[in-house]
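Deliverable D5.2: sample structural annotation.
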Amino acid sequence: MWLIQNVNGIMKKYIFLSKEGITLAPKADIEVENLQVIGIIENAINEDDALKKLLQENTWIWESGYNVAEFIVYEII
């Protein structure tokens, strides 16, 4: 197996989550508090690069009114 590398090392993978929006329980119209997965980005140099790719590849994020500054991001190892 080979790894894609950049000047600083191995390219990274990130997951973006949001507290915004709502989720309904399957059996009732009850709102459930949880995080929503906004997207997963692979082959990014860092978090900023991953966010840029996420927004370029998913125009619906802006169109849906999400506050990008509030996203929670984790590197996936």
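Annotation notes: Residues 22 and 28 are 14 Å apart (CA to CA). Residues 19-76 form one domain.
The annotation will be released with the project's public dataset once the embargo ends.
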